[in-house]
Amino acid sequence: MAACGAGNEDSSSSSSSDGGSDAAAVSGTIKGAGASSMEKAQNEWIADFTEVAPDATVEYAPDGSGTGREKFINGAVNFAGTDSAMDDEEMASAKEKGCTGETIQFPTYVSPIAVAFNLKDVDSLNLSAPVIADIFSGKIKTWNDPAIAKENEGVKLPDTKITPVNRSDESGTSKNFSSYLAEAAPEKWKHEPDDVWPIKGGEAAKGTSGVVDTIGAGEGNIGYADASQIGDLTAAKIKAGKEFIEYSPEAAAKILESAKRVDETSKTNYAVELDRGNAGEGVYPVVLVSYAVACTDYKDPEVANTVKSYLEYAISEDGQKASTDAAGSAPLSEAATKAATDALGQIKTD
After folding, report:
1. Which segments carry the region annotation Disordered (predicted)?
2. Ramachandran region of residue 207, left (φ > 0), alpha (ψ -120 to 50) or beta?
């Protein structure tokens, strides 16, 4: 299923290149919260959208996916961004608390997760899933370990201690990264994928920026983060098939060509499942899919109109180009844009 992916060739839906013909007419304030991985994209969407809709105010707090979902469930925000799709229990809880209708969710942002490291005089590094799993579980302790050296012939690796850096807060990026390890190296990584990092005792930091800053602050550090936000850090090439792949939006988007919807019949839930363990040649397998989460019914029609219009802009051709330019994400495919448009069509605006 081409549920998400690169190449937004065309869309004749109401989600036009300017985010919908009624965008200029919306007004009022809406609040969102969630994935810090989406911060650059959300900031760009907000800036562009409010140029079209000057009477509207959109706020987004990059508090992390778990916090964003919690705030949405409790009605503290009007929409959320999350790197982990809401499950049935969360959606049922939202209906009892903060969402007066059904929860809708659909992909809006697709990006590679970089495995970034800080190692003096090493500007290129190859890593396979089993080796990454052993590094983050603490089994591989120094950079000149034979398992790393075997994948990096000709590279002079120091005996520097390895310090893995993980998220301290609930994070969809953590869940996506651990899902990759569980699927691509099941014999090494026995932990159930979760927003909460499963291993205690390592170096932990809050938010994407916190992880990136911590990696950069210490020689020998290694961590995972949305590739768009690693700055000057170096990222490892990740093994897929028989080759080691450098991250790029195009290489990351390829894995989504085989993605399947969690619930094919739902008109509101467009969450997808990725096959990270069987990435083919040329596919970058460490990927996060971030979802927009909203409600079909809002008590205030003004809020409903503004939420719908803002998210229509995010999935539009212009919105996806803005995200690609600002954050290096892969634009949604035509099929993914249609799915998002169908979901947004469930929002009642009168």
Report:
1. 1-27
2. left
Query: Which amino acid does the sequence have at 163?
Result: T
Q: Could you read off the pLDDT of 267-280 as tens digits, one per residue?
A: 999 999 888 888 77
What Rg do the C-alpha atoms of the chain give, in angstroms?
20
Q: Which residues pair with 295 in a beta bridge?
A: 103
Residue 12 has pLDDT above 70, yes or no: no
Structural domains of the chain in order of their starting residue, each with its CATH number:
23-111+253-344 (3.40.190.10), 113-251 (3.40.190.10)
**Residue 279 identity:** A
Residue 193 CB neighbours (<10 A): 17
Give all strands of the β-sheet with 237-240 in edge-to-edge order: 126-127, 237-240, 243-245
Q: Are 16 and 347 in contact (CB under 8 A)?
A: no
Three-state SS at 195: coil
Q: Which two tokens stand for residue 85?
A: 């799709």
The CA distances from residue 156 to 87, 142, 148, 182, 278, in Å, are 46, 13, 11, 30, 31
Rounded Cα distance between 342 and 152, Å, is 47
Contacting residues for 200 by C-beta, under 8 A, at least 6 apart: none
pTM (global) more than 0.85: no
Query: Nearest 5°: phi and psi at 252?
Result: -70, -40
Q: C-alpha angle with apex 77: 287 to 99, nearest 5 degrees?
A: 95
Residue given tokens 């919260």 in the structure block: 33
DSSP annotation of 240: E
- Residue by residue, DSSP assigns 162-194 as PEEEEESS--HHHHHHHHHHHHH-TTT--SPP-
Tokens encoding 83? 């790197």
CA distances from 120 to 98, 125, 321 (A): 49, 12, 35
What is the DSSP code (8-state) at residue 217?
H
**The two structure tokens encoding residue 110:** 């697709």
Tokens of 125: 């590094």
